[in-house]
Design a protein that fits this description.
Elements: H1 2-20, H2 24-27, E1 30-34, E2 37-40, H3 41-49, H4 53-59, H5 62-84, H6 91-124, H7 133-142, H8 144-148, E3 151-160, H9 163-174, H10 179-186, H11 190-193, E4 198-202, H12 209-215, E5 228-230, E6 233-244, H13 250-276
Antiparallel strand pairs: 1-2, 3-4, 3-6, 5-6
Helix pairs in contact: 1-3, 7-13
């Protein structure tokens, strides 16, 4: 499949240059006229480049190009007549176009930000987040008991926005209300509330620091009588299961250890940057007015 895509991509690249020409004059060459409107070679080449890959193979043939030109001509006829009827001046059309433009601008900005973050993380992997083999080996030695008898726990939670709300949930649980039912009714976490609050399985080192202390000695089936506070809000936690997994060798543990070290370093780095940049967060402004 990859070779086929690569072949089609190369073929289309050659075709685009051949079809649209290398110079501006060729690009402006008219291949169809519809009243005062026209379709140029560049218009066709641009549309072909944005067509689905599965369709592009057909467009690389002469019958495909001719059929595609016919489709563009039909669209242009509809466009000419739509403009003649002043549809392009209608308020709802103008509004939807402006909304699309704004949405597109937002997506471009989001793409740019995500690319910058991605590249910065790559740079950090060479510096602050670089983990040498010696550190991985030392971590395994220092925590060998966790790899000789690794523990996997399954957690559920009910997320609330305030401590009083969380304490009210705890009171209901103490009176015998079903945890899953309360999670579906009261939890603010849309990703888990429909599953009765199920968060999935974790190794102890993978847990949030706030969660780790709360569930370390918690018996299976019990819940945290004291709500746990994180940046997300207040959590009422429940340990739904716990089991011992097979021992993990140093070699097989390398990737897991590396993830643990990187996460710990990154969290500490973020806290340091928050201080240096004097970060201030106002969660109360998220509340509906």
């Amino acid at each position: 499949m990859f070779k086929l895509r690569k072949y089609i991509g190369c073929f289309l690249l050659i075709f685009t240059f051949a079809f649209a020409g290398c110079g501006k004059k060729q690009e402006k060459k008219v291949v169809a006229r519809i009243g005062s409107e026209k379709i140029t070679l560049e218009d066709v080449a641009s549309k072909i480049r944005s067509a689905p890959l599965s369709y592009q193979e057909y467009l690389s043939t002469e019958p495909g190009r001719r059929q595609f030109l016919d489709i563009l001509m039909r669209q242009k006829i509809m466009l000419v007549l739509a403009k003649k009827s002043n549809l392009h001046k209608r308020k709802d059309i103008l509004t939807s176009v402006e909304e699309f433009k704004q949405d597109y601008k937002n997506k471009v900005r989001q793409f740019e930000e995500e690319r910058l973050i991605e590249e910065y993380l790559k740079e950090m992997e060479k510096t602050e987040l670089n983990v040498p083999d010696s550190e991985i080996e030392q971590y395994y030695k220092d925590n060998k008991k966790d790899f000789d008898r690794p523990v996997e726990i399954r957690l559920s939670h009910i997320l609330l926005s305030s401590l009083p709300d969380a304490e009210e949930v705890v009171r209901k649980l103490k009176k015998g209300t079903d945890f899953e039912t309360l999670a579906k009714e009261a939890s603010l976490d849309p990703a888990t509330s429909s599953r009765g609050g199920d968060l999935g399985t974790f190794k102890p080192a993978e847990l949030l620091p706030e969660f780790s202390g709360a569930v370390k000695d918690m018996p299976v089936g019990k819940f945290s009588e004291k709500p746990v506070h994180t940046a997300c809000g207040y959590h009422v936690l429940r340990k739904t299961s716990q089991k011992i997994l097979p021992a993990v060798s140093a070699e097989n543990a390398r990737n897991e250890i590396k993830r643990i070290i990187i996460k710990d370093r990154f969290d500490k780095w973020i806290e340091k940057q928050k201080e240096l940049l004097k970060v201030r967060v106002y969660p109360e402004e998220l509340e509906a007015k």
